[in-house]
Request: fold
Amino acid sequence: MLDFTSHIAGPYSTKLLADLGARVIKVERPGGDCARRLGPFLGGVQQIERSGTYQFLNTNKESIVIDLKRPSAQELVRRLAARADLVVTGFPPAVAERLGLDYASLSRFTSAPVLSITNFGHGGPYRDYRLSETTLFAMGGEMFSHGLANREPLKLGGTAALLQSGAMAGIAALGAVHARELHGIGQRVEISLFDAQINSTDRRSASILAYRFSGRVQERPAGPASGIAGGIYPVADGYVEVTASFGNYWQRFVDMIDDDALRQPKWLLPQTAMDPAAKEEADGIVYPWMLSHTRQEVWREARRAHAMVAPLFTGRDIFNDPVFRERGLWTELEHATLGRLPMLGRPYVFDRTPWRLRSAAPALGAHTAAILHDLGYSDSEAASLRSEGAAS
Amino acid sequence: MNDYLPLAGVRICDFSAVWAGQSATMYLADMGAECIKVENPFIWNPMTRAASPRLTAAAAAMIPPWMGGHPGGDPGPRPWNNCPAFIHVLRNKKSFTVDSRRPEGLAIVKALIRVSDVLAENLAIGTLEKLGLDDAAIRRERPDIVILHMPAFGRTGEYVEGRGYGSHIDAVAGSTILRGYEDSAPATNVQIFAGDFWAGAHGAIAVLAALRHRRRTGEGQTIELAQVECSAQMFPQAALDAAWNGQEQTSDGNRSIEGFVPNGVFPCRGHDQWIAISCRSDEEWRALVAFMRNPSWTQDLSEATIRAAHQPMIEAHIADWTANRDRDELFHALQQAGVTAGPVMSSKDVAGDPHLAATGAWQSLPATADYPETPFGVPPYRFSRSAVGLRTPPALFGEHNDYVYRELLGVGDDEYAELEAAGHITNTYDPELVARA
Reply:
């Protein structure tokens, strides 16, 4: 795969394929992918080879640095594209055209499918608009209903929306590979981050359809919980998430807490769910129980009772959790200059073709020389590409 | 006519439920797989087709819109065919009914497995095993099948008996702790289901990869996607900060993890109108300052690192400035000035958005007995040659019984009549189950 993407969404889509065995040649601009400047940095030292964001997103890839604006870079890109099974770009449409890396130009020298990942697509009034994690989630239709009614809408943590859109692009990439191998065709494949948010699961499609069906708009709720029990409760060492308000989930919740006062039939009456005094009475039993147990103790009881209750983990919990460790959520990478480092491991377990970390994210331009050689550039031609600043 | 579908010829026996599983198989159906949803008319699978099989208009009105917003506010006699939370993950699929707990029903399911390339499920741990369909039994019917399991917390290890929906998976995956107001305890967080979206996409990717291996080698395999482990990858910055530096990241409200200042959501004129603004560079900050006509408070804030030390002050000034402005005018004006901005769009805003309308994000589907003609979202990926798109409307319950039983499995008229009389073949849930709901 020939990968022209940078930042977060595009590189996540190509990481998914790289981690499953694809050879991904990542073309970086001089100075490197902007994700190299994003934290967390190993030891807090801001340096382009120490970025956690970059290291996560670029495992198993090779890095070649090309200044796409240089005339002699064109032949280099042509040779790379001609040998690719899939080309992935992340340029805004106007930039792709300017660089000659739009589909019309690329398809002149490769029969491979070209996946173009853009902010807002290749047409329409927002085509050339800018986008960030926060504006993407805001426009995606879910932020409006996330948070509390009397406060501002809330984003997700980290860069979740960009990564989600990257995952959707990963589906498109593999679809393009299948179509090529099954039907022998290349084609233009496009996905916009905006579309990936709008028309996807996670309340978005549902809320839009609900509006079209009923005219009802999904708004932010006044408070986190509804019914007798539900939402987030404080426990001895943190918080737990609870669903107990419908189906047989109340019974399981009661089994978890194991207090006879909650076993009375009155709790199952529909009017009880609406009664603030009943809620107060239940809280009088539930809160003390919660506060006298740790997250792991609550979760153990919840698993016994099959209650819909789970602890709020932090990044540190996820790193230290012995069950996740034993199952293999974490792996280690061997980095040429940073040494051995923990890295998030497989998102899925394949019993025949396992997810595998073959190499850490590449140092900037680490593979330039080898790739130029592979492409048939002689040493002197490679040297002149370097002296012209086309490759480094 | 060749429609060049990437998964032409692939059939999925689909036991998936809720959103994570059902969206995974939807993406595969988008790519051309024939996805056959196995539905049991005697079992109500929660959070899979509607809030309840029996739902009055008054009851639906008490349920939040994304779940309770049935057509015209009235679910009618078949809420499972028009719940907005679920029919959107049924596009491009087929549905057939069978009570797989009875021997003749299980025989039908096994016959379907024999002609399937993929089996997908995310039922509670042990559900398929109870039916007698553990992996070995499935492989006896179809040795080269690709099996996708999507358990919440894994099929091995101490958390195997954990139960949960998206919100519980978000909690353990580290999502919930990172998405609250910076000045409030996490107990005020409302539920969200980012993990369903995420796990669904990854389930599809895993199957796409396994099918490629199968086409090249003839070998099937089993995939285990523990939704919580998958979702933990949605927050790599927090996980790696903990792993590398021992740092515990918490929520910072709407501020940016990428160091953008300002980055947030600001009020606009009117009720519940908000605009998101990110200055992704010092250049964008200068563009914002110029656009605001250089107010005095912006002096000496040209560098992001300096602005980072004054975030509350900057945010308060911007909120003052946006408060009496029209959200959409400001959105376009800021974008044209070179500032990253976007309206916080409600479902109504999205439905009326001119860009989405202009770029073909919707496709009107004809009326059925259960919903009127309605624009539905199309898949986000657009292929120039492969017919990857909204090809068939959401599968109604039991809509494809005739196709599956007669055409695909070759069931004859007599057997069909027997199975129908025994309640396997139907387009409605069992009346007793409905009455009990």
